[in-house]
Amino acid sequence: MAKSTFESPKGTRDILPGEADRQRALVNAFGEVARRAGYGHVMTPMFEDIGVFKRLGDSTDVVTKEMYDFHDKKGRHLALRPELTAAVVRAFVQHRPAIPWKVWYEGPQFRYERPQAGRYRQFSQIGVEALGTDDPAVDAEIIALAWNFYKQLGLQQVTLLLNSLGDPTCRPAYLEALTTYLNENLDGLSEQSQYTLQVNALRVLDSKREEDQAIIDQAPVMVDFLSPETGEHFAGVRRVLDRLDIPYEISPRLVRGLDYYTRTTFEFASTALPGSQNALGGGGRYDALAADLGGPDTPGMGFALGVDRILIACDEEGVFGAPDSLVDVFIIDATGGDEAAVVGAELQAAGIATDRAYDARSMRAQFKVADKSGAPIAIVIGDDELAAGQVQIRTLQGETREQISIARSTLIEELKKRMT
Ligand code: AMP
């Protein structure tokens, strides 16, 4: 194929029909799962005041390296959203809805990352947030929601990693122990981690650098420092997950890439994918974020799942494929094309998805297009059928092929019988 003058920017991609329809189906399925659990849909702008996202943490890659920020024509400093939690909490603080406020969202996020398989500069997330309660039941409900969604898609090879990052009553003592330990082992740490340690010791645990791993593996863990209340909260989350038969692994060094997390923190990894792209989503509690954004002290909990990654995992596991066809019926009209317009409109009004060929092509040429469309059924209208008030139904896919003429007045009824 000739190279076009312009291509999609580095790290972005065009998602074409078929794959984009599959992505839409996934988002719709997620929206339905969330709706059934009492979450309403929320839509916030693609860009925000950069201050909203600065809350993700001064030492996080997302803030220091990956933000798409710009000044608008009036000099406002804005950023394309790199994630949605901070934006949703900003909306909560602005509108002060009744609590608990349970919402779900979907849409593109933007991060200036080094593109690689499963890592893009524009990618899509689905997620939920619940603000206004710190009941461990909501933590478990939210984790279960993601878990059940993966199961609904057919994914089997998903692992849930769970941790508690403590709260302001117990985290300082842990941070002190961690900082002391890391300082004692400073020489063994990578240069980047030595720097990170100056800003935020917890972030060092998130280092993926080979040379840091042995030191990280021996580092003190937050779960040993939890206060009785925080420990009880974490036990409450685990108890409900156990009751729901949701398996998890305690991952005591899981900190995740954003700084706002407190208490429950979790991540889903696919064992079907290589380590560099196996993170399917994650989230946790962010009890200080609303106050940090100028709102009332309001606990919050949520997750974001990577749509692109989930679909890669689905490919790997051979589940939730792209639809074979976008339509139920292909209309072949050998009488000139007007009948296809009329029958198509009738069928679409009855909820039957149709397509057709154009340009008054030969019957043979139209059959070729019909086959390519993947539609399971064709209806054929020739001059004889038109004169007799009939249409032919032909199956195009599958083992048993049928070819019968029926009265046009019974077409919708006959098609619906074959579509169930
Ligand atoms: P995060 O918002 O960093 O917690 O990420 C949540 C999920 O979004 C990850 O587990 C990935 O599945 C997905 N994700 C994050 N960054 C990217 C990216 N650059 N490209 C594709 N997916 C991503």
Fold and architecture overview:
The protein has 420 residues and is of the alpha+beta class. Helices cover 38% and strands 21% of the residues. It has helices spanning 19-36, 50-54, 61-64, 85-95, 136-153, 171-184, 191-199, 201-204, 213-218, 228-243, 289-292, 307-317, 338-349, 363-373, 383-388, 411-419, and strands at 40-41, 47-49, 69-71, 77-80, 101-110, 122-131, 158-164, 249-250, 262-270, 279-285, 300-306, 329-333, 354-356, 377-381, 390-395, 403-407. The chain has an eight-stranded mixed β-sheet, sandwiched between helices. Strand 3 and strand 4 form a beta hairpin. The protein binds adenosine monophosphate. Adenosine monophosphate binds at residues 83, 111, 113, 118-120, 123, 125, 257, 279-282, 304, 306, 308-309.
* Total count of strands: 16
Structural class: alpha+beta
Shape designation: elongated
- The separation of the N and C termini measures 41 Å
Poorly predicted regions are none
Helix content: 25-40%
- Bound heterogens, unique: adenosine monophosphate
Strand content: 15-25%
In DSSP terms, counting alpha (H) and pi (I) runs of 4 or more, how many helices?
16
Going across the biggest sheet, name each strand in turn.
Answer: 1-5-6-11-10-9-7-8
| Rg (C-alpha, Å) | 27 Å
Average pLDDT taken over every residue: 95
Largest sheet: 8 strands, mixed
